[in-house]
Structures are given as C-alpha cells and as structure tokens.
Design brief:
Blueprint (H helix, E strand, L loop, with lengths): L3 E10 L8 E8 L4 E6 L5 H6 L9 E9 L2 E2 L5 H7 E4 L12 H11 L4 H14 L15 H13 L5 E5 L7 H18 L2 E5 L12 E6 L2 E6 L1 H10 L10 H8 L10 H11 L23 E8 L9 E8 L4 E6 L5 H8 L7 E6 L2 E2 L5 H4 L4 E4 L12 H8 L3 H10 L15 H13 L5 E5 L7 H16 L3 E5 L3 H7 L2 E6 L2 E6 L1 H6 L7 H6 L9 H13 L1
Parallel strand pairs: 3-8, 3-9, 6-7, 7-8, 13-18, 13-19, 16-17, 17-18
Antiparallel strand pairs: 1-2, 1-4, 4-5, 9-10, 11-12, 11-14, 14-15, 19-20
Helix pairs in contact: 3-4, 3-5, 8-19, 12-14
C-alpha cells in the first residue's frame, strides 16, 4: 500500500480566478522513499506539499483525491496527521511556538497527550540524536537560523512521523549549515526509514541521493524518474529546469561528453581525472585583482560598532569596507555573523554607537529621509512579506507610484505581470521575492541593498535577477547584497567580502575568493581544483574542458 496516493488533483486559489495552481496531478509515494520535488517558482511545489496535510491546505477550489495509507486524507484525524505527517516550513520562525529549546522539543508530544515518562525519553533521545544537548536550556530567540531549523526538525521527529515533508528548509541557512541540515535529513531517511518529500532550489546536496526526482512545471508533473534519468531528460528536452541541475550534471552535458553522467562532486572529480589523466595543458582562465583603494566609493564604512541592547554583546565589531560605485558587491558568511545588521546600519535602521557611514562621500546623517529613500537608497529585506500592505500585487505596486506605465515596466522586468490580481500571501516564496523586488525598484535607487535576494527563487529567475542587476549596473546603480548563495555570488558579483565575528575579514574577486577556499566555495571548484586552477563556476569548468579538448 502506498503512503500517499494523489489522483488527478486540480486546485486554484480563491483569489486567482481561473488560474490553476495544480492541474491533474497524480503521484504515488511509497513508504521509505526519498523524493525531491523540483520546479520553478510558482510551478506548484509548495501548493502540492500543503495539500498533504489538511491543516495546511490552502483555501480554494479543489478536485481530485488524496489518500494516506489507503484512507482519504480528509478522513484521517488531525491528531493522527500531526503524529504521522511531519512538515518543516521555509522560515523556521513561522513554526516555533515556545520560548525554550526543551519546551519546543516537548510541545508536539504534549499536544498529542503523551505521558510524562515517554515524553522525557523521546525529548532526551532527539536532543542526543541531533546533537543539541549544549543548547537544550537556551532561549529559542538566542539561536541562529540553522539552529532554529534543526530544532524544528528535532521537534517533529520526536513525534516519530512516518513521513517528513520539507518545503525549502535551507532557504535561510548558510551553505555549511544547509549541507549539515540536509545530511541529517538523509540520515533520518536511511537509518529510521522515514519517508522524505523535499523541495529545494539548491539541489547539490539532495538530488544525487534521492530515490526519485519529480519535476513540476505550471502546475503539472512533467517528469518522475531517477535523478540521473531526469538530468538526461531535461538536457535532451532543452528544458528551462536543466539550469537547476547540480553542477556536475551541467558541466558534463555542457562539455559535450558521453557516457554516464556524474551526479555528485566526487563522481565529477573522478570523471575529470579520467578525462585528463596527465593534467590539463590550459588549467586557468585569465583573472584580475581588485584595486587597493577606491577613489570615490559609493559606500564607505569605517569602524562600525553596534549592539542591539545595552548589555548585550556587540554584533558589529569594527566593520570597515568600501563598495565601488556601479558594482555588484556580495557579502557572505555564516548565520548570525552580522551581515544583515550591516545593511541595516547603512540605511539607518540600526544606528552604530561608534563609526561612520558615508554614501557617495557624504555622511548618512547629512541626508534627509525624503532624500535618502527616494531616488537614493532602497533595501530588500530578508522577509519580503514585511513590505506587503495591500490585498493584491497591483495595489502593492500602486502604493509606490501612480505611474501605471512604470508599474507595467517593472512588473514585466520582475516577471510578475500574471500575478497582479493575486493576494501577495497566496504566492510562493519565490514569487513574493519578485514582488518585493519590484516594489523596491519602483523607488529608482542609486544604491540597492539586498538581503538574501535569491532566497526561494528558482535558477531561471536567478538568471533573470542577474540580468536585472547587470542592467542596473550599466545605469550606474550600486548593488550590495548579503547572500548564502555562493554559486550566484561566484557567477555574478564583481567583489566578494567574507564576514566573520562581527567584521569584514577579506575582500577579493569571486574567482580568487572562492578559488582559494576549501570549504566555503562552490561545487565547481571542489569538483575541478585538482585539474583546473580557480575555476569557480560551472561555466569556468566547461570553458577549460573545451579549451583543453580542442588542443
């Protein structure tokens, strides 16, 4: 008997009129499977996952059937669903309900009416299994994003669910924390036999290990097969989704090679070793270094110190940096290092008690707020929902400008024209990010601050976002972004800075920055550095591969 059986599921949101979020979706999920659900933003992934737990099912018009262990899902009691169907959301703060770590671990068991002895045993077991004993008694508010998401996972696993559903669980985590989290999910599947259904835009750490990859497009399932076959199928069909495939897959097909495609970095490394047994004649691409000093930086930070409360530790500990005008500058680093606080300090939301912020050579205090936030500075926050105040996307854009033609231009640029009559809260995480970006761009800023701009968006819109940023760069706009997306930073940034312990430690070109790192680097670099030097993107590896084959 299948764990889940979905038959001809069709669904449209109440506010979206006739537009179908899901159309004739049929899927069978077996006990113990590890399924990765792929697709562009708005393809229906989150909508489908939310239909697998009644309490999360969105309002709208639905037809078709869903059974859980042979029983129609609507006939499975809420208590049984809570115990057997675990669900981890994108944003860890949306799911945490208590103030202490130990209480969060016990909350689900309390809700199920579990007796005290069993509850204590399960909480202790989960604390040990997930390695969270050291912060067992801490306040939840003091945890980093990665720790909160791990706590969510542990709290759900304490209830011993039969299936674990994860919707973009690493969208707010740094690369190392994300990799650790996904390895834990895989361990749960392998060791405990828990069925896993996961949707992720970062496929490097999950795609190769899945039993099956299911690809969605415009509310339909267009593919369901082994990961290796899905990669081949998407390449042969020239599908837009091929851009989301892991780096080894993209490099293999981009290089024109034959044989079996590598899925993991390790397999990709072996394939390159076989391809170049004597090394590569051309092993590096031309590079450049950054100037030691900037004559007229767009942003100049000098010795910024900041703490959120009088007696709390400093979050910023002497931050100094210069951002070149008309450039795309990325700041990377672990969760809780102070990256987002730095952006808030630049736009005056957080006021450092020591240090200076200058914009185009002038102290930020010299600007009036009307000057600063109209035509000068704009910030896209980490949570796009914080910008939403209206009932439709059209009204959101109208709030920023009455110029309908300008609204249409920016709407088309951010690919949200088809969403204008939708409620912002009915959109997927990636669609919300695009709407928020459109609102920010309507202020026509000279300085654009982006906090995790690629969070929740698919690889296709990432390329479109890069085109938008490059177009703004040509117009003289300076972009400073905080990001955990090292692949995006490596490909599109002009400079990358490393943030650690409340300060910026180093700044370099993406090729030199990621090429010299062992862990905080790209999959392309980890896969190819034994053959090629400073190749940090899939495109770098493909270029060097082809150059050497043509010799």
């Amino acid at each position: 008997m299948a764990l889940f059986e979905i038959g001809n599921l069709t669904f449209s949101y109440a506010a979206s009129g006739m537009r179908k979020a899901l159309e004739n979706v049929s899927l069978r999920v077996e006990q113990g499977e590890y399924i990765v659900l792929c697709g562009t933003s708005g393809s229906g992934k989150t909508t489908l996952l939310r239909h697998l737990k009644s309490v999360l099912t969105p309002a709208g018009k639905r037809s078709g059937s869903i059974t859980f262990q042979g029983v129609p899902l609507e006939q499975v009691s809420p208590g049984e669903q809570a115990a057997k169907i675990g669900y981890v959301m994108q944003n860890p703060d949306d799911q945490i309900v208590t103030d202490k770590v130990w209480h969060e671990l016990a909350f689900g068991l309390e809700s199920l009416g579990c007796d005290q002895k069993t509850m204590r045993a399960r909480v202790a077991e989960m604390a040990c299994y997930f390695g969270i004993q050291d912060w067992f008694h801490r306040d939840v508010a003091s945890l980093s994003g990665g720790q909160k998401q791990l706590l969510n996972l542990a709290s759900i696993m304490a209830m011993h669910p039969q299936v674990l559903i994860l919707d973009e669980p690493t969208s707010q985590l740094d690369p190392i924390a994300a990799s650790d989290f996904l390895n834990t999910v895989r361990k749960i599947n392998l060791e405990l036999g828990t069925t896993v259904i996961i949707t992720e835009h970062r496929l490097e750490d999950i795609f190769p290990y899945a039993d099956r990859a299911v690809v969605m497009e415009d509310g339909h399932i267009i593919g369901s097969d082994t990961p290796r076959n899905i990669g081949k199928n998407l390449w042969e069909r020239k599908s837009r989704m091929f851009a989301a495939m892991p780096t080894p897959v993209r490099v293999f097909y981009g290089s024109g090679s034959g044989g079996e495609c590598p899925l993991t970095v390790r397999e990709g490394r072996s394939w390159l070793s076989r391809s170049f047994p004597d090394g590569a004649a051309v092993n590096a691409l031309p590079g450049h270094s950054l100037p030691e000093e900037l004559e007229q930086p767009a942003i100049a930070l000098k010795e910024l110190w900041f703490r959120y409360e009088k007696d709390s530790p400093d979050v910023l500990r002497g931050v100094s940096a210069e951002i070149a005008a008309g450039s795309i500058h990325a700041i990377v680093g672990g969760n809780g290092a102070g990256k987002s606080t730095t952006l808030k300090a630049i736009c005056g939301i957080c006021r450092p008690y020591r240090g200076k912020v200058k914009l185009f050579g002038q102290p930020i205090g010299k600007y009036k707020s009307t000057q600063l936030f109209h035509g000068m500075l704009a910030m896209l926050p980490q949570d796009p929902k914080s910008l939403f105040v209206a009932n439709t996307v059209r009204e959101e854009l109208a709030e920023m400008t009455e110029d309908v033609q300008r609204q249409q231009q920016i709407g088309a640029l951010c690919q949200i024209t088809h969403l204008l009559d939708s409620h912002p809260y009915d959109l997927s995480g990636g669609e919300q990010q695009r709407v928020a970006l459109a609102k920010v761009l309507l202020t026509e800023p000279r300085l654009l601050l982006l906090d995790e701009p690629t969070k929740g968006i698919d690889s296709i819109f990432k390329e479109e976002l890069a085109r938008i940023l490059c177009r703004l760069k040509e117009q003289g706009v300076t972009t400073l972004m905080v990001s955990h997306d090292v692949e995006f930073c490596a490909r599109y940034a002009d400079a990358v800075s490393m943030f650690f312990d409340g300060q910026i430690l180093t700044t370099d070109t993406p090729r030199r920055f990621f090429g010299n790192n062992s862990f905080y680097t790209t999959a392309a670099n980890r896969m190819s550095r034994h053959v090629f030097s400073m190749a940090v993107t899939a495109e770098d590896v493909v270029t060097l591969f082809r150059e050497n084959r043509h010799e």
